[in-house]
């Protein structure tokens, strides 16, 4: 029988790494949004809780996107990259996450 209470996920397993690209830096500077690679099974609530717990910020909104695998080849060998899940987290006004000093 289920106890009715969902098991809390470890925040460090939900968030895998920040995605630092030109596009994500523009989102951070202009829209106060931060982009993370997250666990495939994580939902928006898990992601928001993990960001709030790890970085001590207030999350307003979370958007997620599945990034499909890309075919790659090395010489005559053809393979593919892995699928992954991306989360764009909108932070409250005046709050930021600086990945260069948080380490």
Write the layout of secondary structure elements.
Layout: H1 11-14, E1 15-18, H2 22-31, E2 33-38, H3 44-55, E3 59-67, E4 71-74, E5 77-80, E6 84-91
Antiparallel strand pairs: 1-2, 2-6, 3-6, 4-5
CATH architecture: 2-Layer Sandwich
Low-pLDDT segments, ≥5 res: none
Structural class: alpha+beta
CATH topology: Alpha-Beta Plaits
Number of beta strands: 6
Helix content: 25-40%
Kindly, what is the distance between the CA atoms of the first and last residues, rounded to a whole number of angstroms? 42 Å
Main sheet characteristics? 4 strands, antiparallel
Mean pLDDT: 91
Shape: globular
Number of helices: 3
What is the spatial order of strands in the main beta sheet? 1-2-6-3
Please describe what this structure looks like:
It is a single chain. By secondary structure, this protein is of the alpha+beta class. It has one domain: RRM (RNA recognition motif) domain (Alpha-Beta Plaits, 2-Layer Sandwich), CATH 3.30.70. It contains 3 helices and 6 strands, in the order αβαβαββββ. Strands 1-2-6-3 form a 4-stranded antiparallel β-sheet. A two-stranded antiparallel ribbon has the order 4-5. It starts with 10 loop residues before the first helix and ends in a 12-residue tail after the last strand. The mean pLDDT is 91.
What would a concise description of this structure say?
The protein has 103 residues and is of the alpha+beta class. It contains 3 helices and 6 strands, in the order αβαβαββββ. The termini are far apart.
């Amino acid at each position: 029988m289920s106890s009715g209470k969902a098991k809390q996920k470890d925040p460090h397993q939900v968030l895998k790494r920040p995605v630092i690209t030109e596009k994500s830096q523009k989102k951070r500077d202009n829209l106060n949004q931060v982009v993370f690679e997250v666990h495939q099974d994580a939902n928006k609530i898990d992601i928001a809780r993990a960001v709030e717990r790890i970085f001590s910020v207030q999350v307003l909104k979370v958007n997620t996107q599945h990034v499909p695998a890309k075919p790659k080849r090395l010489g005559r060998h053809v393979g593919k990259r892995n699928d992954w899940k991306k989360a764009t987290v909108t932070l409250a006004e005046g709050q930021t996450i600086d990945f260069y000093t948080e380490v």
